[in-house]
Amino acid sequence: MEYDAATRLYPGTPKPAVNELNLSIPDGELLVLVGPSGSGKSTALRMLAGLEPLDEGRILIGGNDVSTVRPRDRDIAMVFQSYALYPNLNVAANMGFALKQQGVPRGERDQRVREVAKLLDLEPYLDRKPRNLSGGQRQRVAMGRAIVRHPQVYLMDEPLSNLDAKLRVQTRTELVELQQRLAVTTVYVTHDQVEAMTMGDRVAVLRDGNLQQCDAPSALYHTPANLFVAGFIGSPAMNLLRASAGGPLLVGGADIGIADDLGGERATVGFRPEAVVIGDGPIAARIRIVEDLGSEVFVHLVIDHDGEERRIVAKAEAPFAGSAGDNVHLGLHGTIHLFDNADLRRTSVQL
Question: 270-324: per-residue pLDDT in tens?
């Protein structure tokens, strides 16, 4: 499946919602489209489904150009955020509705519904109406309705966003396991970068309709292509500080041992929370907040950087003895990222 310079420009808007998107998705891959609100991720998914027309470029499925093919003829199945179940039909009828519309014989239809119901642990609920199901069960019914069709591609538009936090974590794990068993190409849209990182074989990061980077989750985290990806991927986010002009690169007034190859004020310094060591180092700081999550601790700090108070986050080992208001010293280790402010691209230095 492939986006070939695919562009969507809404009438009356100066910039494309999706701008010359080039993206190839191998068979069987789970690709996640992620980005902030307005980044174009849902529009890109709807273009693939045929629900949004292309102004330029092509969409290919199975090597065939489907840019002008009707949605019903694209051999795709879509799972929406709202589940979109028929309230007057029971679970079995909801799951088999598309097959009935396609003229699949009753016997085959019932068999396929039962097989998918068993796969999704929905067998006890086949006679229930949607109003008698929990949110997680409704989500599985919506998934089952897509799976039973045996399409070439699954498209999922934030299907877990209506679930509570605990159920989202459980369901996304089940969804990944299911996709791996089915081995069907899946494109999944979310605004939640943690969800994206834990689910995707690859993750495509969009911003203002433009693809910023498409890579494995670990590559996005450790080698972000630019300043936007660095700040968007990771929770807590990467610490980003504008470099002082001239001389060596300074963090909190301290020389961190990196030559300024980008020309001082043209660089932004970035480092992950786990790169900050509390206890011994040249950077003076004050603790603002300690977030103790049990297995890990995030320490929010203030440093005096280039004449201004700047906030950074460190990841510390549990148990952590410090508390709000304490003065501490920091060191940096691991990878320090440098971003050229002229084009926002990244270089990195290993300390």
Answer: 999 999 999 989 999 999 999 999 989 999 999 999 889 999 999 998 899 999 9
Confidence band, pLDDT 50/70/90 cuts, at residue 263 = low
Which of the 8 DSSP states describes residue 266? G
How far, in Å, CA of 215 to CA of 119, rounded? 30
User: Looking at residue 260, what is its pLDDT?
Assistant: 63
Tell me the mean pLDDT in the region 236-251. Answer: 82
Do the domain assignments include residue 227?
no
Largest CA distance in the chain: 77
Q: Which helix (H) or strand (E) is 208 found in, with range?
A: none
- The CATH number of whichever domain residue 46 belongs to comes to 3.40.50.300
User: What is the C-alpha separation between 301 and 326, in angstroms, rounded?
Assistant: 10
Q: Do the strands 202-207 and 30-34 form a parallel or antiparallel pair, or are they unpaired?
A: parallel
- Helix, coil or strand: residue 44: helix
164 part of a folded domain: yes
Domain identity same for 331 and 263: yes
Residue span of the structural domain in which 345 resides? 237-350
Going by C-beta distance under 8 Å and a sequence separation of 6 or more, which residues neighbour residue 37?
Answer: 191
Confidence of residue 345 (pLDDT cuts 50, 70, 90): confident
- Cα-Cα-Cα-Cα torsion 97, 27, 43, 216, nearest 10 degrees, comes to 130
